[in-house]
Amino acid sequence: MYRMLKSLLRVKPIEPAGHVDAGEPVEGSLQGEATLQRTLTAKHLIMLGIGAVIGAGIFVMTGQAAANHAGPAVMLSFVFAGLACTFAGLCYAEFAAMMPVSGSAYSYSYATLGEGVAWFIGWCLVLEYLFAGSSVAVAWSAYLISFITGTLGLPFPTELTNAPLAWADGAFVASGNILNLPAVLIVTAVSGLCYVGITQSAFINAIVVAIKIAVICLFVGFGAAYIDPANWHPFIPENTAPGVFGWSGVFRAASIVFFAYIGFDAVSTSAGETKDPQRNMPIGILGSLAACTIIYIIVCAVLTGLMPYTQLGTSKPVATALEAHPQLTWLKTLVEIGAIAGLSSVVLVMLMAQPRIFYTMARDGLMPKLFGKVHPKFHTPYVGTVIVGVVAATLAGLIPLSVLGELVSMGTLLAFATVCAGVMVLRFTKPELERPFRVPLAMVICPLGAVACLFLFFQAFQEHWKVFLGWTVIGLFIYFGYGIRHSRLAQKV
Fold first, then answer.
1. What's the domain range around 340?
2. Per-residue model confidence as pLDDT tens digits over 36-46
3. How far apart are CA 52 and CA 267, in angstroms?
4. Which spans are transmembrane here (predicted)?
């Protein structure tokens, strides 16, 4: 028992920035990487954050949150989710400035809270990246089918556009459909690109971001003229059950729309390249999250004003809202094209990120070595890419968006809560470490961040606890069956 506890609590050492062990590849290591040039200003960070965050979430989960939980008050849900992100983002920034390495919350947890927590957070990150890739693929499928059947007027079997499973009364039930075929195909195609090492250039990514922003601006600008204020009443519908409308529904929806903020940590991980990080990091994080929250609130106001919130519970809420107004058919077509392009890039980013997490964990000995294999020609973690692709395609084809999206938020919220706790732990255990950026009022901000993230996590846990516990049990089997014995830290003892 003592040996097991010792294994769970062993931490990976933190080395000064610029230190790398001989023969140790930089990627995925907790050892500090080469010194980065500090060129980013607060303005750069704000734009980086907006570009990383805006897009996928607003096209995917907003309708489900409004229709099933918050009604027009989904606007408030975005405020609460953004507040939790703000606290977590400041904590991420302190870690990122100290340890500019890949692995994110997994690496930070390994250095502060021990191997057991690091494994659990790494397993939660699978929910974030793998399930997010599947979730966005389902939304991509919905917008594609809307474009094919609505705009082009071509037939497509309904049974091949929806998952065979549905979520009702806390359990999976048969939906009568066969498979979400387009979602499976996009995941398969993107996995193939990841296998051969296709990467997005900054130029292409900038174009995709511009398309997403342009579509949102057009939606707000032209959709606002067709708003019916009656659709906003009641603003907070009367509570009918725990988490179903009322204030409990607003908080429940906040745990769902948290999905829309995934990507903000791109700002935090740029701490090593930021001029005067103590000043510019808070401005960048707070500024980008404030801007994104304002944009989301405006989009939600237009979305819920265009049609009754009860009709928005689809995988393509923006297109659905525009369908109610024949005068905006042209805009619906542009939204569909923009969503298809924008969501394709998100699927690519997510399916590229997940094998990287597995690669990092495999190099630490916590996952089988095959996940650390790199293709001799393409220089990609090809085994992990294939496995991730198969699992993601299966999830996208069989599981409904409502379940996939909430599991993504749950995994992310736990990871963020752990990072907040890790900053507090490191302040006491390693006070001598150089911190280019320090969380202001850390003993207030860090607990608030952890509590806020855990509060939102438990909003979703009440409904999906069986699925989440099942996922956790699978992870525990892998760790205690393989990871605890093959850990590189164990071999150094």
1. 37-166+174-488
2. 467 778 888 88
3. 8
4. 45-67, 73-95, 116-145, 165-190, 202-224, 244-264, 285-307, 337-359, 380-401, 407-429, 441-461, 467-484
